[in-house]
Design brief:
InterPro entries: P-loop_NTPase, Sulfotransferase. Helices cover 39% and strands 6% of the residues. The chain is mostly helical.
Length: 242
């Protein structure tokens, strides 16, 4: 019975789908995971958007996602620029899960505090893996970014199958729209307009849940100044629209 509970809780197999941290930590004491380390990987919002767009447009995405393409406007967009233009026209309402801002996933349920202790940066992947190994206290761990059970092979195989444009290739107005929608992600995780280099410092290196909560509060104050406020979804909206 205990083994079945662990299976249902996702302790003995990967957790599929998208879940915020407060859901994954639900009933932590009862499930015996209250002392678990928590970690999340973050990524530059523009790079993440492009990757999600190309993934959902490709044959790599699952059947459920393929069925959603028409509903979320992907069938009529051949480029990232076109899709962002479409999202701007509908004011980014009810965006698909892959395009939602990152920060709500790592916050507590009332969205007032960061609830993840360790942050790995996609751009500095190896540094993050070495850091989490040290925190957890293990020497040997499978660090492949994509698992064979999904049929994608290694991360290098995935990138070869799904090459795509970079942020610098997008129109300036496209990048500006992405920056507006993901304003909190850019601010909270310290990202500039273009993605960082591999030898840059990941914000998770010197920050934890407590310090990032303070940074979140500072970002809220900063982003809520002037003619715009930040909505729950992370989008900057004019005060007259809020």
């Amino acid at each position: 019975m205990q083994h079945m509970i662990e299976l249902q809780a996702g302790l003995r197999r990967p957790v599929s789908g998208h879940y915020p941290i407060f859901t994954m930590k639900d009933n932590a004491e009862e499930r015996g995971i209250a002392d678990f380390h928590t970690a999340a990987t973050i990524r530059h919002p523009c790079s993440r958007f492009i990757s999600a767009f190309r993934y959902l447009k490709s044959d790599l995405c699952n059947e459920g996602n393929k069925k959603q393409r028409e509903k979320i406007g992907l069938n009529d967009a051949e480029s990232v620029d076109e899709y962002v233009q479409y999202l701007e026209a509908i004011q980014w309402n009810n965006v698909f899960g892959h395009f939602k801002p990152q920060y709500p996933w790592i916050m507590n349920q009332d969205q007032t505090a960061v609830d993840v202790d360790n942050f790995l940066c996609n751009e500095q992947w190896d540094e993050g893996i070495h850091r989490i190994k040290s925190i957890v206290g293990v020497e040997e761990i499978d660090t492949r970014r994509l698992l064979n059970y999904r049929g994608l092979g290694s991360s290098s195989d995935h990138f070869l199958q799904n090459k795509h444009e970079k942020c610098k290739d997008l129109k300036p107005e496209t990048r500006a729209a992405i920056e507006r929608f993901y304003a909190m992600d850019y601010c909270l995780f310290g990202y500039d307009e273009l993605p960082p280099e591999e030898d840059d410092v990941c914000i998770g290196t010197n920050n934890n849940a407590e310090s990032l909560t303070k940074r979140f509060q500072d970002c809220e104050e900063k982003l809520n100044q002037g003619p715009y406020v930040i909505s729950y979804a992370g989008r900057l909206v004019k005060i007259s629209e809020s």
